[in-house]
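From: lab user (bench 3)
To: helpdesk
Subject: output format question, protein + S-adenosylmethionine

Hello, I'm new to running complex predictions and I'm not sure whether the block I got back is the full result or only part of it. Here's what I submitted:
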Amino acid sequence: MPHHRTLTPPERRGGGAPVIHAELRRHYDKLYDQLLNGRPPRDARPVLDVGTGDGLALAAITQGSPLHGVGVDTAEPGHWLGPEGWSVIQADAQRLPFCEGSFRSALMVDVFEWLRHPTATLAEIARVTNGPILVVQTDWEGLWFQADKSAVGLRADRAEVGRDLVRAFTRGAPDQLRGRIHAASAEAGLEWTSSSVATITTDELKPNNLAWDVLESIRRYLVIESAQVRARRFDDWRAELQRAADDGQFTMLLRRIVTLLERRAS
Ligand SMILES: C[S@@+](CC[C@H](N)C(=O)[O-])C[C@H]1O[C@@H](n2cnc3c(N)ncnc32)[C@H](O)[C@@H]1O
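Helpdesk reply: Thanks, we reran it on our side. This is the complete output you should expect:
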């Protein structure tokens, strides 16, 4: 299954250097603090990054810090945009090629929704991690685009079109996400130290900002990869969102579930 839902920007800017959306910087800074969980960085490494992809989310969280470690992904390593000095290994997180307690922290960003066996996978991550495990998952059900109808003469049926398009993009993402993460971690013998919902909003739509790139991802998936929507239909909706944004009447909202887990003391 293609992993079309991701918040990392498309690899087109910066000549291979990691790009972090300005709207997400504070969120990523907070994730870094949560990963450290009050420890100095030297006590938090090495770090395991599960489902590392091209390393962009890892870079967004750890760039410029003294953390280092290993990224694993079932996919073959491609063009690495993650932090320098990290190893990247092709492996399934359900069977990790590491000894018990090899890592002092673990991170898993936007991977939970793709796991076939979340409980077994979390148990395996816990086996190799002697420290906190930070699980971050975008709650795609909360992805929301709003354009004020009165300001731009937006037709009510167009707003419905927008909702349909977003639904088609997020189809298959798990609902009741927070409950699922808690249930899977409890079954894996983990308890959560903290669990919160990060809400990220932007009222701007301009080239390469977060809302722009999320719309690009939706278009790429619906129009090009799965060809379930005609380009014209998508582009009309997008143009209306742009008019609303130019009038200061646009908002995009998304939520991320952030859970810090720890092995239950036996
Ligand atoms: C949406 S991407 C997220 C990549 C990166 N963490 C980020 O946030 O930018 C999900 C990644 O998880 C990987 N993945 C899915 N199931 C996995 C598993 N069982 N073990 C390791 N990697 C897995 C996919 O290959 C993909 O690269």
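A quick orientation on your result: The chain has a mean pLDDT of 92. Let us know if anything else is unclear.
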